[in-house]
Amino acid sequence: MKWFNHCQTLEEIKALYKKLAKQFHPDLGGDTVTMQEINKEYAFASAKTIKGADLSDEETENEMQVSKEYRQAIEKIIYLDGIIIELVGYWIWVTGITYPVRKTLKEAGYFFAPKKQAWYFRTEEYKVSKGGKKSLDEIRAKYGSETVNRDKDNRNDKKLFAIRL
Hints:
The chain is of the alpha+beta class. It has helices spanning about 10-25, 30-50, 55-75, 100-105, 135-145, and strands at about 85-90, 90-95, 110-115, 120, 145, 150, 160.
């Protein structure tokens, strides 16, 4: 590994990933090949650390896949202005000014929950047959909520968004 050799914990891996993304993301002047290399090593280093947590091969593979799916779901919409992205339990909820970007959200795999007036993303394993009757505030209270931060980077007035996981 080139990037994550010295990381001992999942928290260290995530912190270094955010730092590297700020430096090498293509939207911030980096190149796609380098960022893809970092993404692959991030997945490997995360899996290796998770594997150290005595998970089975199947559980480790599942953790890697879920992490990748959520990261990709957020990366597809993170640049959109006027939206708020929250991690609530195992779902991603998007609120704010979503009407102008509804097509982009739909194309990124998000679904609209009309009673909650919010968009959501979840992996297939968390699919439910009927929408719940709880409000988004009740869901937040039950599972906790973490907002995806938008850290502005000064280079070329472009934005980098860091995910606090």
